[in-house]
Structure formats: C-alpha cells, structure tokens
Specification:
A: mainly alpha, Leucine-rich Repeat Variant, 0% strand, B: 340 residues, 58% helix, SDA1-domain-containing protein (chain A)
C-alpha cells in the first residue's frame, strides 16, 4: 500500500481529499465513496423532512466537494445532477438559504464542467424564477440566467440554447395570460429586455416575445413590453458605445467620457516623470502599458458600428400588432385598467408603429379627437402621438377632422400664446407628413397668425408657410407664396402643366441627387474629356482616388463661397427660366436642391438631358469616396445659393422620425424662471467640490506633509535647536504673547465649528 | 448682555427656596412624576393563572433535545425517558431521531435507552423516518457514530411488534445491505471473483482505535447483518405470520393479501408518488417476498461472501459469526434455487 499522509485519512478533511482526488482519482475512490454514500443518506433525510434538517453546513461542503470531483467518477455520480435538480425543484421554498444557493452554484459548476447541458440547467432553474418567494434567490437566478446566456453567446451565437430559452419565455407569457393574468410574465419581459440591451439577442423571435408581452393581460407586463419597444434601442446603443469606450453624445453617461479624459493626463504625467526621475525599466514598462491601452481604446473607437435593426423594424405583422394593441388597451371596450401615463406610453408606441410601417389604424384618429383639448392633462404628448401617427397613406378625410379640431381648440384668439404655438406646431408636424389633410381656407386662416405679437406663434405660422411654399404653394394666399414659389407656379402654368398633390402618389428618387453637378464639375476640370486617356491615369492614382483628400476639403471648408463659380451663374439663370429658356446646367442645380421639385420636371427635353447626364456618369464611372465628398461640397454650395435667394428648405422629415412632445411648444421666450435657473446652477455644480479641502486631502493617499515630518522628528535631534531651547529662555512677556495668540486661535476655531 | 443673564441663572441654583406658610412645598428639580393614567395594563405572555401541565413540560423537553449543549440534550432525553406519556406523538420522533447521528456518545446512549423505553406500538408509524437516520449513521463519516449504528438497527430488528422489523426489511432491503457494505468496508458495487480475497485492512477500519473495541463493534455489526438476513430470507420468522397460519379457516397465504396492519404507509412499496423510478438510492424497492429479496441479494452476494470469508479467516468471535452466516447463506441459496 502506498504511504499516505495522515490527514488525508480523516474523512472530515474534505479540502485535502479533493486535492488528492484531483491528482489520483483511482487510489482515492474508496474515500470518495464513503463521502458519496454519506451524502446520499443525508440527502434522503433532507428530502423527507427538509424543514427539520439541521446538519446543513457539513452537507453544504459535501455537495460542493462532489460537484468538484464529479468528473473523476462519472459512473458513480451519474445520478448526482438529477438529485440536486430534484431537491431544488421540490423543496426550494423550505431549504435553508445557503443550501439553496450552494445547490444552484453546484449546478452551474456541473454545467461548466460539461456534465449537464446549459439547456438542462436553464430548465431546472428557470421555473424557480416565478415560483420562489425569496427576492434574493430570484435575483440570483436571474443573474445566473443572464450570465449563462452571455457566456454561451460570447464568440458565436448559440441558436439552440437561445431557442430553448425563448420558448420557455413564450410559454411563461402564454401560461400566465388570460382573464386572471399574473405578473409572472414580467420576468420574461425583463430577461428578454436585458439580453436585447446587451446585444446578446437581436433576432425577430425576441421581438415576438416582447410583442406577446405588450399584448399581455397583466398591466405591468404589458407596460414592460411597450416600454421595451419605445426605449430599448437607445439603451442598446448606449451600452454598445460604453463597451467600446467611446465618448457619449448624451449627458447621462458621463462615466465613459471621464475615462477618456483621464487617460491623456495620465500619459503626460508618466512622460513628465520619466523626464525627471531616474529611468528604470519599471517606469518604461508603465509608459508602454499606458500607451498600449490608449491605442487599444482608439482602435475600439474606430471600429465600424455593428448593423443592428431596431426592435420595431424587426416586427412581424406590425399591422396586426398595432390593431390588437389599440383595441385591447386603448379603445373603450377594454375598460380603463391603465393609468393616463400608461395609456400615453401605449399610444406613443401605437403611433410609432403606424408612422414607421405606414399602417392604417383608422380608429386611432377618432380616439385621439377626444383628448385634443387644451385642458387635457399632458396634451402635448397626445399631440406628439397624433403627429407620429400621420403619414402620407392616411386618407386625408380621416386626418382633416383632427386638424380641424386642433385648429378650433388651440389656435384661436382666446387662448394663450403658447397654446396657439403648440397647436400650430402640431398641425405643421402632421401636414409635413400628410400635406393633403387640410383645406386651403383653413390653411390660410392659420397662416394669418404670422403677424402675431408672440414670437413663438409667429414662428410656428411662418414654418407652416415655409412648408407649403415647397409642397403646395397654390394652397397659400398670394402674398405668402414668396418669390421663388410664385415664379415656379407661373412657369408651370405657362407650360400648361399644373402640378397638384394627389393622395397615394409617392415621390420616387431616381438617382443620386446632385450627380449632375459632379459631372459638370468633372467636365470643367477636364477629367472626363478623354475616356481612353483617363483610364490609365485613374489606374495610376487608384489609391489616391479612394482616399478623401483632406487638404482639399479643408480648403473648401473656409466657409466662403467663390462667387465666380459656375454654379452662381446657373442660379442667376434660373430666374430667366420663367421665360422658358432651358439650360442643362440650371436644371441640374434645380434638381439637387429640392426633391419635391424633382417630380415636377416640366419639360420633356429637360428630363431627357437629366437622364443623359445620369447615364453618362453612372454608367461609365465607379464613384469613389472622394467623388462623394466632392458631391457633398457641390450640393451644399448649390443649396447655399438657393438660401441666399430666400427659399428656405423644409427640414426633410421622414415618416419614421419621432416627434418630441416638448419641441411642439416652440422656442422658449422670455427669462427663465427661478426654478429653471436653479436647476441650471445645480447642473453646473455637479461633480464640483465646495468647502474646505482639508479633511478630503487627508483622506486621500498622499506623502507625508512637512507638518507631519516636523511633528514626528526625533526629539534628540531637536532638543538643542533654538526653536526648542528658546522656548524656556523666553521672557515672560513673550510667553504671554504666545499664550494669548494660542487662546485666540482656539476661540476662532471653536466659532467655526 | 448674555453674560449677565447667565450669571443670574447660575446664582439662582444656589439660592435656598423660601418656604411659605399655607403654600405647598415646591418640588425639587430632580422630582420624577410617578403617577400614571391608564385604562388597562396589558402584560403580554405573563399569565399568573396559567399552570404548567405535564404535557407542556414534556413538549419543552422535546424541544430541548435539540439544544446546542450536549449535557442539556442528554438531560432532556433522560427526562423524556422517565416521563413517557401514554400516547406518543410524532414530534418526539422527529426531534429524537436526528440524535442517532449525535457526535456525543453519551447522547447516543441516552437515545438508545429512550427508544427502548418507548412502547413499540407507538413506534411503528415512524419506522421509516428512523430507518433513514440509521442508514445515515451506518454511512457516517465519524467512526464512532458508525459503530453505534448497529445498536439502533438491532433494536429495530428485535422489536416486539413484528411489524417493525418487517417494515425495515421490506422497505429498505437493498439500501440497508449497501449500507452494511460501507459499514463493514466491503466493496459490494463491483462483483469480485470467488477466488479474490478482500484485503484484511478493511477489518481494521471497522470501529474505533482499540483492538477490543474493534472486535466488539465488528461482532455487533455481524449480529445485525445476520439478523437482518435471517429476517429477510427465511419464511417463518415473524410470529404474527405464524399465528395467522395456524388459523385453519383461512388460506395459508392469506396474510400476503391483507393490507399490512399498523403501518403508516402500507402501499409505499408500490412507489406511486415518486417522480423518477428506477434510482437506487431513492426508490423503495418492492421487496415484499423472499424471492424478490433474494434476487436483489444475488447481485451483491459475491461481495458479501468475500467479506465474510476474510472475516472467517480472522478467527475468534468474528470468525465464528462469519462462518455461521456463510453457512446460512449457502443453505438459503440451495433452498431458493431448489424452489425456482
């Protein structure tokens, strides 16, 4: 028999036994079996009478021990994982807390060792999430679940596991739904949201889970689902940016930007110290490490962003979802189980769905009518929802009552200026999306507010005018049309082709806007003169062509436009265009600046020429990034020229944009009131320290101060100094002086406290 | 000035209060009001009229059986032994049965004497619980607890009420045999050939340090094993069965078809409510008749025989007992195989 260390034979010394078993499983099998048998009998006692089990600590150790060495004796311990699972399933509510935790830990360990699969582990612990009464245990399980999924999806996605868990979440949501809906489904929503936020799950199935949650019978679960769709994508972006260590645009995540700022002085400081102190290998290594981390961070910042679809875009059957959401939660038949805030949230989601996917949920608009009065609480939110819910495929006769109602309730002489401004802004937002929803009479009534004394009302009315100058100038009164719009109108009338807005006709973009400008520019530069010559030249400069020429763009960024450029002449030509003169260059500049006007190209010759230009460039040349850069430049130049002449381009809003409720109120006029000022001050004070820094300095790690040094100085060294000797030799008067000063100081310091 | 006021206040403390005729004496500054107004005074959990019944006291001592101090535990057990009521309820058993695993030897001895004193009729419904703790004691890590386990098992097997040993034998036949394996240090899981010898060192592990102890322990374990095997494998040992057989009115095997009397869970062997069947350590294997029990024994018989053989070679008391047991097993083997 081999010699063994005496301590190993003590059966209570589990740690040593574990170590020995790891090294030589065969020899210590008997010792292991002793432990395992004891565990088995103890487990049976526990299973019979879990609340009366008292020998918890020893049992804990044994569970951990067996889990650790399980891999050494697979045939003996093949029942072990299932035993633990059974214990947990049957008795989790009465088991002692630490034992419960230990069992979960051991199961996780077994999974890490590959003895049980992740699926099995999740099947065991997931049901406990909803059945247990303990808050801490629930939290533990939740974090464990998230961790398992995160690890499984780290390098590549684990579709099988994901599908299993998603099915579990589905069934949880389904089983708790119904007339007596339980809030258990909240855990499903929470888990899915967390995983989405961390970009672990980004597939349509997750979105389906949240869709199910949003339509859940329980209020809490439904709101969790709704808020997922409203806010989670921004959360995900933020998390991603934080992960990459990028500075955030938002104020809320100051932490990451702080990290960034911390780095540079650190390196500067190390370099400075390198210059002053003795050069050692350690210091050099420190600098290297700092440089490396900085480089890594920069590298991370320049990584291309991952393409992620937002949850709303990944929805399957958005029309059905929006209809069900509206009928189940908002319409009168559902009863009022939601509070106003919750209803606003749901309304926000429904309107967003309608806007993004261009759905038609016609009941919504009449539902909104009820809430659109100035006295309604949170009315701006309702107005924002109305604006979001309108798009160009909503029938105008459905939307026009809404606009009529807003105009009647909000925009009249009897109401406050900010109410009128909010009403006008809302109407503008709706009309941007669906310009047909208003009659000319009403529009002209509304634009009459451009002369209002209140700045916000005046600006709102002007923006409405600006919008219709571009969209349908004929609906405005003659005075409001402006120079360019009326000239274009008369030109169109002369050509006999009166443009009219029609329902259901969409603008189609046919090419890259402004491509003609580029072509013209190239011609002027003589780049395209000879294709055969150009090709070899291009081949030579291939690398240069792909890179954006920085110096070139910097030159043009000076902010001043060369007034001698051809574009300028073209624009001046445009005014002559009323006579019917056609010029290829003019028509190009016209085309790029206004998408809407692109549709109303009124002369066939023009169209042919445009198409020719497109053909020549698009068919013959591959556009490089440098080309696009130039194109951008040319477009801004042309756009600027147009602005100089008074045509104000409407902001290109798309049907997918959200409407911010606060922006509807218009710009704030007048002084800020006290509360706002205070808030601003407080914001400025954040992260700044006031008051004495004495105590704070002491608490920080620092070297010994001079004062401390003096205090601790060896007595023998000081005894013959004049400072000490002089004290006893002082005259009585001097002594008194010192004493007085001391007393005075004491008093002062007391007063301070 | 403030100081003036302070001065006058300070002075006031040292002035002697003047006593005036016809006026009440002014109260001292340190006077404390002792009177109170209350409609009722509630004193929780302090009943003056309550008398401690013997039942309460008994329950109190039952709870003391779980006390952290071992002397208190022992004394509580002694009290319980001297005050056993007519009807013993389950709380007593649930609190004393874990003490089979008690680390203190004196406590274990007290438990043993207590269970001897409890009337066996009230004992019967709790056999299953107690047998769980006996099994745990048989596989325990501490050698002295392991050594004492046979005493409890012997008690259960020798109980007057014939139902008790039968419950132990029928409900935990296989498990008890495996526990004996770990108790005596035999390897029952792997079947050894007839020629192999079990190392003699295994016997050294049985029991405590001293030689004498070891022998007494081992012989006690062997006693328990032999009684257990005899109960399980011979037909006519339970007196109740014998009594029933003697009644001429019924069929000879009537007792087999009757609902077992006096048991807490007569159909537990059917294992109706268990989730997962077919697990060795958790199931209560159905060993209602000798044939089934022998089938189970057959699987581990080589291990047992090898162990007994090595014991026989030791000689002395252990050797004699081992030899008896081997003879018995051989006889049973022949008989059973003849039957089949």
């Amino acid at each position: 028999m081999p010699k063994r260390r005496r301590a190993a034979l003590l059966p209570s010394n589990i740690a040593l036994l574990q170590n020995l078993i790891r090294r030589d499983p065969g020899s210590y099998k008997e010792e292991f079996l002793v432990q395992y048998r004891h565990y088995a009998t103890q487990k049976e006692i526990l299973a019979t009478n879990p609340s009366g089990f008292h020998d918890t600590e020893a049992f804990l150790d044994q569970i951990g021990f067996i889990a650790q060495v399980c891999t050494c004796y697979p045939s003996e311990t093949k029942e072990y994982p299932e035993d633990l699972a059974d214990l947990l399933k049957a008795h989790h509510s009465v088991l002692p807390v630490e034992l419960r935790e230990k069992i979960v830990q051991s199961l996780v360990l077994l999974r890490n060792r590959g003895i049980i699969s992740s699926e099995r582990l999740i099947q065991v612990i997931f049901p406990l999430l909803t059945t247990t009464n303990s808050k801490t245990f629930r939290k533990d399980i939740y974090t464990t679940l998230v961790r398992i999924l995160k690890n499984a999806n780290r390098n590549t996605k684990a579709p099988k596991l994901n599908r299993t868990v998603q099915t579990l979440l589905f069934t949880l949501l389904e089983s708790t739904d119904g007339p007596a809906a339980a809030p258990d489904g909240l855990w499903a929503a929470k888990l899915a949201r967390e995983l989405w936020r961390r970009s672990i799950w980004d597939d349509p199935r997750t979105v389906e889970i949240m869709k199910q949650a949003a339509l859940h019978g329980n209020t809490k679960v439904a709101i969790a689902g709704v808020s997922f769709f409203l806010g989670v994508d921004r959360e995900r972006e933020k998390a991603e940016r934080k992960k990459r260590g990028l500075a955030d645009d938002d104020d809320s995540s100051n932490a990451s930007s702080d990290d960034e700022n911390d780095d540079k002085p650190q390196i500067a400081g190390i370099k400075h110290r390198m210059g002053i102190n003795k050069k050692t290998g350690k210091r050099a290594r420190k600098l290297e490490a700092a440089m490396r981390s900085l480089k890594k961070k920069e590298k991370g910042a320049s990584l291309p962003t991952q393409l992620n679809f937002s949850a709303i875009h990944l929805l399957h059957d958005p029309q059905g979802f929006a209809e069900r959401l509206f009928s189940q939660t908002l319409s009168r038949s559902s009863g009022n189980k939601f509070t106003l805030e919750q209803r606003i949230q749901i309304l926000n989601l429904v309107s967003r769905l309608i806007g993004v996917h261009k759905l038609s949920v016609l009941g919504l608009y009449s539902y909104l009518l009820k809430y659109l009065t100035p006295k309604q609480r949170n009315v701006t939110q309702f107005m924002a929802a109305t604006a979001q819910a309108s798009h160009d495929l909503v029938p105008p006769d459905v939307l026009s009552p809404v606009i009529r109602k807003i105009a009647d309730e909000f925009v009249s002489d009897g109401v406050a200026a900010e109410v009128a401004a909010a009403g006008l802004n809302t109407i503008r937002e709706i009309l941007t999306r669906n310009p047909l929803a208003i009659e000319a009479d009403l529009l002209q009534d509304l634009t009459a507010y451009k002369g209002s004394k209140s700045k916000s009302v005046m600006m709102a009315a002007r923006s409405l005018i600006g919008l219709y100058r571009e969209v349908a100038p004929d609906m405005l009164s003659r005075k409001d049309r402006g120079k360019i719009a009326s000239m274009e109108m008369s030109a169109a009338a002369a050509a006999g082709e009166v443009k009219k807005l029609r329902f259901g006709v969409e603008n189609v973009v046919e090419g890259i806007p402004g491509l003609e400008l580029l072509e013209k520019w190239r011609k002027e530069q003589g780049l395209d003169k000879d294709d055969e010559d150009a090709v070899p030249k291009d081949a030579e400069d291939d690398d240069d062509a792909w890179d954006i020429d920085v110096s070139d763009s910097e030159d043009s960024d000076s902010g001043w436009i060369d007034m001698e450029s051809d574009v300028e002449y073209n624009v001046s030509d445009e005014e002559d265009d009323a006579d019917g003169n056609t010029d290829a260059g003019e028509d190009l500049s016209d085309d790029d600046s206004d998408k809407e006007q692109e549709a109303e190209v009124n002369q066939p010759t023009k169209r042919v020429k445009t198409e020719d230009a497109l053909q020549t460039l698009m068919a013959t040349k591959i556009l490089t990034p440098a080309d696009f850069q130039k194109l951008d430049e040319l477009r801004t130049k042309a756009g600027l020229d147009k602005i100089l002449h008074g045509g104000k381009a409407a902001s290109a809003t798309t049907h997918e944009d959200t409407v911010d409720a606060t922006s509807l109120l218009g710009p704030k006029s007048g002084k800020a009131d006290k509360a706002e000022r205070l808030a601003a001050v407080m914001e400025g004070r954040q992260d700044r320290q006031f008051g004495p820094k004495k105590g704070k300095k002491d608490s920080q790690p620092h070297s010994t101060t001079n004062k401390e040094k003096a205090r601790k100085k060896n007595f023998i060294m000081m005894i013959h100094k004049r400072d000490v000797q002089g004290k006893s030799k002082k005259s009585l008067r001097d002594k008194q002086k010192v004493l007085r000063a001391h007393v005075e100081r004491q008093k002062k310091s007391k007063k301070k406290h | 000035m403030g100081s003036q006021k302070k001065k006058s206040e300070k002075k006031k403390d040292f002035l002697k209060p003047k006593l005036k005729v016809g006026k009440t004496k002014p109260k001292a500054t340190s006077y404390t009001e002792l009177g109170f107004k209350a409609k009722a005074i509630g004193i929780p959990e302090q009943s003056i009229t309550k008398t401690h019944t013997s039942r309460d006291k008994f329950n109190h001592y039952v709870s003391l059986a779980r006390h952290h101090s071992h002397t208190t535990r022992r004394e509580a057990l002694a009290y319980l032994q001297s005050h056993i009521p007519e009807e013993v309820d389950s709380s007593l058993f649930t609190s004393i049965s874990p003490l089979i695993l008690d680390p203190t030897p004196t406590v274990r001895a007290a438990v043993l004497s207590l269970v001897h004193a409890i009337p066996t009729s009230s004992f019967a419904p709790h056999v299953h619980l107690i047998s769980l703790y006996i099994h745990s004691a048989m596989t325990h890590l501490a050698p002295d607890i392991r050594a004492d386990s046979s005493k409890f098992l012997l008690f259960a097997l020798k109980a007057e009420d014939a139902d008790i040993p039968m419950q132990v034998v029928t409900r935990s036949w296989e498990k008890t045999l495996h526990c004996f394996g770990s108790l005596l240090g035999w390897d029952l899981a792997t079947t050894t050939g007839p020629g192999d010898t079990v190392p003699a060192a295994n016997w050294n592990k049985v029991g405590n340090a001293t030689n004498l102890d070891r022998i007494t322990n081992a012989s006690q374990h062997l006693d328990a094993l032999s009684l257990f095997l005899r109960l399980g494998l011979s037909e006519n040992l339970t007196p109740e069965m014998q009594a029933q057989r003697q009644v001429p009115l019924y069929h000879a095997d009537t007792s087999k078809h009757l609902i077992p009397r006096n048991t807490s869970a007569p159909y537990a062997r059917l294992n109706l409510f268990a989730d997962d069947k077919g697990r060795r350590w958790t199931t209560i294997s159905s060993t209602e008749d000798i044939g089934a029990r022998y089938q189970i024994l057959k699987g581990i018989l080589p291990g047992i025989l090898a162990g007994l053989d090595s014991g026989r070679r030791q000689g002395g008391e252990i050797g004699r007992k081992c030899k008896h047991l081997i003879d018995f097993l051989d006889k049973t083997k022949i008989e059973t195989e003849k039957l089949q």
